[in-house]
Amino acid sequence: MAAPNKGRRPAAGGQSKPGRALAFILIAMVALTGGMFLSHNTTPRLGIDLAGGTSITLKAKAEPGQASAINKANMDTAVSIMERRVNGLGVSEAEVQTQGSDNIIVNIPKGTNSEQARSQVGQTAKLYFRPVLTAQQSAAPAPSASPSSPASGKPTPSGSPSASSSGKGTHSATPSAGSSPQGRAVSDALKASPTPGASKPGSPAPNPSAPSGDAAAAAKLQAQFAALDCSTKEARSKAGEGVKPTDPTVSCSQDGSEKYILGPAEVDGTDVAKAQAVINQNGQWIVQMDFTGGGSKKFASITGKLSQQQYPNNRFAIALDNQVVSAPTVSSTLSGSAEISGSFNQQSAQDLANVLSYGALPLSFQEQSVTTVTAALGADQLHAGLIAGAIGLALVIIYLVAYYRGLALIAILSLVVSAILTYTIMSLLGPGIGFALNLPAVCGAIVAIGITADSFIVYFERIRDEIREGRTLRPAVERAWPRARRTILVSDFVSFLAAAVLFVVTVGKVQGFAFTLGLTTLLDVVVVFLFTKPVMTLLARRKFFASGHPWSGLDPKRLGAKPPLRRARRTSTSAPVDPKEA
Q1: What secondary structure does DSSP assign to 495-509, as a single string?
Q2: Strand residues in 201-355 grouped as ranges (E)
Q3: DSSP state at residue 165
Q4: pLDDT surpasses 90 at 527
Q5: Are 185 and 318 in contact (CB under 8 A)?
Q6: In what order do the strands lie in the sheet with 285-291?
Q7: Could you tell me which residues come within 8 angstroms of residue 202 by beta carbon, excluding any fewer than 6 positions away?
Q8: Which residues lie closer than 8 Å to 293 by C-beta, 6 or more apart?
Q9: Which residues have C-beta within 8 Å of that of residue 432, sequence separation ≥ 6?
Q10: CA pair distance 95, 73, nearest whole angstrom
């Protein structure tokens, strides 16, 4: 009796119902394509090298007497903070990197928030809470003193903004002329404990004529205050430039309507744990700040002291980069999370919250140049890259047709499925995680063509090996799959591992290459398991492939197949006995 043909035994991992896998991948393709059209993201988001954008060069400048502050550690810290600020705005594919020892290059692609990012990226964002020693209307034209329009939501210049304590009653100051129109700061739930070394509540009000205790310094400060011009943005930005936080200074309000002499800083931006833009009960945008434990004590201490003073010395100024954002009056010790409110809209409130959340830059930066990057060069390079990809794809198809003949149809269909999945996922990842397609990412996609084709070739060669051993196509397809599957998984794992390491250890555009390579490697596994193998199983049942047609690519004669192994029957015959031997 002939031994059973082992080739007819279903191999592990055999595809008994290939229709299920094909239905699953078809549903996935339809869902991804439908999501792409429904979200109106029919093309991948492009990076700065393809879409154009803005390139900003920032030069670090040290404060007087602090030239050593421009060092690698501070520059790296500044780059990290700038990146977090830009990412906090949802701007994708922005690049922040150092150039030389004191320059930072920021590349912001054209997009929804690119202009907003440009205004924030180099902002130092040094925040201080300083007591107001003297306040005076600036010579710059100020808004009229009539009450504000209900629709505007802006405080009037004739009303003094006040600070209140949420949950403990509202404490308002009497409106006085000459107060800030910028809004008010409200604080909620802070612990009132004085900071070490702080003056006791009820101490005499600071003397504006001698804020530093030195007559010469006081006279100099008064002269600076008298000469201070708040009419232009440049003049306001230079007011108090280079002054230490522990020294008094002069400053302007952000809109230039008021100028101040401010005392030493009592609370700074490092005491702010979190800042966010929210809408208050009146429907106005405000910036809410949560202090650290130490910041809470400092804030309670300064508000406790100021509440004992008379106007205008019962005001504290919230100064951001030497400009006063708000200068509310205080009538009691405040407790709670501080809020900055006033003439904010949604964008300005979110801008301020964003820069406060990620901290102040360790250095000041001056904008050296702003260059608009056009997409013309990138478009030419993309065109050349697509031509190279098309040539490579054509060569792969020619090779497959010439060598594998009918099997090339399966390979081409698999490449089409992989291309559809890759395109739809890239289009959806743009708004989803901020992925932007740049030139290195295009290169990664082109390299993936070879990785995907390699998986098909491994499987096809395993099938041919089984046919060379004398097996028919259907058992050969099932027996070849486990061995081919192991090889494909190992190969793709190595490629994915290399892409993951490259993504982690690199920055900028190289990450685009690594991300695309890793994504297409994962998709290669999906396509081979859910499309190539099931299609091969179905086609093995067709006469064209099962009979080994010369154009099927599976012709046993061309492959040098061995004849089927059969065990010959052993027959015995009776021979006559030679009488001589008997």
Answers
A1: HHHHHHHHHHH--TH
A2: 249-253, 258-262, 267-268, 272-279, 285-291, 316-320, 323-326, 338-342
A3: B
A4: yes
A5: yes
A6: 183-186, 338-342, 285-291, 272-279
A7: 308
A8: none
A9: none
A10: 19
Tokens of 235: 């003049």
Beta carbons within 8 Å of 576's beta carbon, 6+ residues apart = none
Encoding tokens for residue 269? 């931006």
C-alpha–C-alpha distance, residues 51 and 45, integer Å: 9
d(CA 488, CA 452): 10
CA dihedral sign of residues 186, 190, 193, 198: negative
Cα–Cα dist 321/60, whole Å = 15
Check: CB of residue 515 under 8 Å from CB of residue 442: no
Among all chains, which residue has been given the structure tokens 């492009």? 46
pLDDT category of residue 535 using cuts at 50, 70 and 90: very high
Which residue is associated with the tokens 């007591």?
A: 131
Residue 437 has pLDDT above 60, yes or no: yes
Measured over all CA atoms, what is the biggest interatomic distance in the chain, rounded to whole angstroms? 151
Answer whether 0.90 is exceeded by the pTM: no
Q: How confident is the model at residue 452 (pLDDT cuts 50, 70, 90)?
A: confident
Distance of CA 263 to the CA centre of its chain: 39
Cis peptide upstream of residue 201 (ω within 30 degrees of 0):
no
Indicate if the alpha-carbon torsion angle 488, 494, 498, 504 is positive or negative: positive
Contact criterion met (CB below 8 Å) for 314 and 174: no
Structure tokens of 419?
Answer: 């291309």
Q: Hey, what amino acid is at 96?
A: V
